[in-house]
Amino acid sequence: IRFMDISIYSRDIIDELSLRNAIMLFASGFVAASAMVIPGLSGSFILIVFGVYNSIIVAVSELNILILIPFGVGVILGFLCMIRVIEYLLKAFKIQTYMGILGLVTGSLVLIFPGFEFFNGWINVYIIFNSWICDFVFYV
Predict the structure, then answer these.
(1) Mean pLDDT of 96-107
(2) Rounded to the nearest 5 degrees, what angle is found at the Cα of 54, between the Cα atoms of 48 and 55?
(3) Phi, psi dihedrals of residue 89, rounded to the nearest 5°
């Protein structure tokens, strides 16, 4: 099992709150919480993409309330908004929503099994097979 050094993907640690940092923390919390509600997506991965993962870990360990407030507000609003969006999608587009969720979950299997070498051109076969399974499950 190989572990990545995620520190190379994060920006400098945010320790002071400016308007720009507050907006970035709020947005990253909002998107990360939205991703946590959707199966197959990782909120931690979203924080790494935004470059604030290390900042949030440090803020939690040091109880830096000034950094955690905009992030926490973003998390709460992200959860509430995404729950409403998924609720609407399940009512309006039930089969398509289930297919999308199933696709995200089965698509993430490639990444969670260590030693799963699918990136040698076989990823296209996997995606097509995954789509076929979703079609079969929901239309048969």
Answers:
(1) 78
(2) 110
(3) -65, -40
